[in-house]
Amino acid sequence: MASQRKRSLNQFIFVGLISVIIFIVMVIATHNLLTEPFPGHNDFLSRWEGSRSFWVDGLNPYGNEASLNIQNFMYGRPAMPDEDQVLFAYPMYTAILLLPLVFTNYAWASAIIMVIMEAMLLAALFLLLDLFKFRPKAIVLLLLLLIALLHYTAARGLILGQLGLVCYFGFALTFWGLGKEHDRIAGVALSLATIKPQLGFLIVPFLFLWGIRANRWQFVGSFVVSMLVLVGVSFVFVPTWLIDMWGQVTAYGGYAPSTPNERLFTDFLGLPANSQYILFAVLWGAMLITWYQVLVQGKLERAMWAAMVTLTVSNIAAPVVATPHFTVFMIPLIFYLKHLNRQRQYKKWIIPMLLVILVEPWIRFLLTLEAESQLEHWFIYFPEPIVILVSLWIFRELWWTDGSVLRHTKEVEDSLKPETVVSS
Predict the structure, then answer these.
(1) What's the CA dihedral at 200, 202, 206, 209 to 10 degrees?
(2) Interval 322-337: pLDDT, tens
(3) Distance between CA atoms of 332 and 387, rounded to whole angstroms?
């Protein structure tokens, strides 16, 4: 027994050392080949400079001076009124989490965060494969690895330094933790996924309410404690951070370009921009019906399906949508691949389908690219979430019958069973 523990410890140390070496090599290569000669990661820049302004300069990251620092870093001057004001606009605990990166220059910081995000994308893939018990062949696994890193949505997120990729990893780890009954890990992971509220503003409350309904109290407690720590420490550092952040978030509409939804309705459909709220109402209504079925009617076998509906609706019917957010659709993709792999007549389509998934978004991007516009075409935003939403409806019973992901406690399971009548 002792020798086995020693062997396991030695293996752990060996794997840890190899991982550290690979990480350092990747960071140096990314810095020398990308972030130093080609500065970018514009989304990360606002968060990093706002965090640096707080920790190094002692400024409120939401204040005018910190905002001016970000603008000077981004534009070399203060932002014009009609330009993106590149405000910090994230929860204060973002600055706390980025503390280790503010004491180096931006090229190194962006190289480190890029490699961390790449590792998160790969880790999320393997978590999902384990969660859904899918063991792909080598060629399929290779394609999935390429999709995880080079799919348009993931690659754009890496290039921009989009913290939405961190949220995706948080969601993947949450579902894995819940599926494997590591509820404390799941609760901490879900709190991490709140780092970008625009992506989790619907799924986080649903999973929290599901945890209560399903008697997963360790998950609920872990999430609550984690959030209290993050939010509480944030208030200690900046007592006004929540109001300050809300002010920056609401100010976004005053200078932000038109949203993909607005461009869809005005440019393509020829309808008023406000027509998008009709679509929002329909999708939110459908989503809330799935919540009602799970949380009120107790159809807990539909919980994972309702969670996927919620994630999909939040990527369509929301004020702010970004294509890197679509990395969350790896979750239903792995689920469908598992079931396709079980059907002999459909297995042959897996590789062609994955090739299309990898290549098609880049073709769509290149075909819709406009040199004079800095915005992605509205058509880039809609195929993926619409396809996922339709598939969730068509294959809803497949999701309902696969109880390997979101389960409830035995006490709740027993309470849902019809009472047994004992005859004398």
Answers:
(1) 90
(2) 899 999 999 999 999 9
(3) 11
